[in-house]
Amino acid sequence: LRSADLTNRLCWWEEAWDVFVGNAPEGAGAGSFAVARKRYREDGRNVVQPHSVPLQQLADGGVAGLGLFVLLVLAGTATCVAAIRRLEGGERAAAVALVSVPTAYLLHSLVDYDWDFLAVTAPTMAALGVLAGAGRPPGRTGRRPLLALGAVLVGAAVLLSFSFPRLADENVRASTRALGDDDYGSARDRADDARFFNPLAVRPL
Q1: The model's pTM
Q2: What mean pLDDT value characterizes the chain?
């Protein structure tokens, strides 16, 4: 109640910097901010992310994580600029309007953790995909079985990377409910399932 920083973001940003400095140059590890900040925090409140995507990458992934994020931003910027240069007239105006989506995402990601929300990130990536193909001449069609197989494997990997952590969390909750019902065998099995879906998770242990 006495804090003039109503959103506490300045405090969390400072903690993210402290986490990076304390674990430089590699960072504290992906998704570790909630635990790593406890060494530097000044109060008992819990927070999952520092509410800034660049600082989140820096605290979690260190110099490499921030560098990859900067490369992603540069690639997105190059995609937007190239699309606007390729198009003319009404199509260029539409492209400029579409560029506002990743621009707004980038600006908002400086003060919040948009990266963690698929509902915000997916439309942004879709807009960048549309801009990447806008105004390009159609390519030659032909059978490319290796390319098709690669696309299927990449798509499957993306789906698994999104679904496995969720399945692990659901199994952890099921394990906790089983413990409350004194069903220890089921609790152990659900915890084992959670470890299968996310071997790096701590909560199943």
Answers
A1: 0.69
A2: 89
